Amino acid sequence: MSLDNLTIASRYSKALFELAVEKDQTEAFLAELKQLRQVFVDNPPIGRGPLRIIASG
Fold it and tell me: Is the distance from CB of 23 to CB of 6 less than 8 angstroms?
């Protein structure tokens, strides 16, 4: 059984959000995700890899 990238990303993001809520750290998680997104935006070769969905959101 093979999952497509969107399904995997959806499951991962849901789990990450649930963890942030559980730890009452949603704002901190959001700030870190924004920083990670900026890394991909600032470095296009990285954004063309398997994690390109992060930079496009």
Answer: no
CA 17 – CA 37 distance, rounded (Å): 16
Q: Which helix (H) or strand (E) holds 5?
A: helix 5-22
- Per DSSP, 21 falls in state H
φ, ψ for residue 23 (rounded to 5)? -95, 5
Do 54 and 46 meet the contact criterion of CB atoms below 8 Å apart? no
Global pTM? Answer: 0.62
* Whole-angstrom distance, CA of residue 50 vs CA of residue 57: 14
Distance, CA of 4 to chain centre: 16
For the chain, percent of residues with pLDDT exceeding 90: 40
User: What are the residue boundaries of the structural domains of the chain, listed by start?
Assistant: 5-56
